[in-house]
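Data availability (excerpt). The following record was deposited with the supplementary files.
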Amino acid sequence: MTSRVEPSDQIQIKFWGVRGSTCASGPQFVEFGGHTPCVEIRCGERLFIIDAGTGLAALGTELGASAPKEVDILLSHLHLDHIGGLPFFKPALLSKDRVIRTYCGHLEGESAMAPLERLFSPPLFPVRLGQLPARFEHHGFRAGEPLIFDDGTRIETHLLNHPGGATGYRFHHRGRSVCYVSDLEHSEPWPDAGLTDFIRDADLVIYDGMFSDDEYPGCRGWGHSTWEKGVELAKAANVKSLAVFHHYPGHDDMFLKAAEATMQIAMPSAFVARERQVITLSAAEEETAAEQVEPLQA
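Predicted structure:
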């Protein structure tokens, strides 16, 4: 166990949605959860949200009216499983004074505004984001460029191999770092040199391990990787811990627990991410503290 430190000394990661493509539901999906991608990252007291899948609704319920007046949502890309939670984000419904900013890096510098306006409008959706009480602002950048915020926070980015493109993110705080690498299809040769450099020496990498190596040949070209390739990449980059993420919706608790056990033979610090699991990275030379929070029951 680590010693107790002030929140400003920590990076805290909480998984609110860990599934890919579509939600999973039923008693066989309780341990790992069924919502699509959404990860909360706090650098000290500074809140960032990565992806706006259906897990965003549960995060919004927890934040409620206590959410910051300015909320930053970093989008890996705009496939439905990564944006479907946006109109259900409770802080957007509670205050006209709140600003919610999206950041999108795979559209040649364009923001997500036009695609989101097409999706969240009739006949596909009854309410436009612009009709919600909060004000939405949409920012575009080019993956590979750093994001630098008004408070000086700097987030590194990397273009990922995914149909239509996607963006990976790297956060630094008080000597610790965490990388989000989803959605990604591994390339040949592997590990990719540029991606290896991007995640090198990170304390935690959240990685798209949607398939196993046995399953992958039938899914080639779909834009996703395997936990085996994640372990290979993490070892090449001297990563301390690996969180396998973006689970295939047909992989139930039994499958994922078996995969985790096999994975930890190759890399003992690797694990399969669970919904509402919390990881805390403390400053200085502390060990990583991880707390698993049981999923809420329906």
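Summary of structural features: Residues 253-266 form the longest helix (14 residues).
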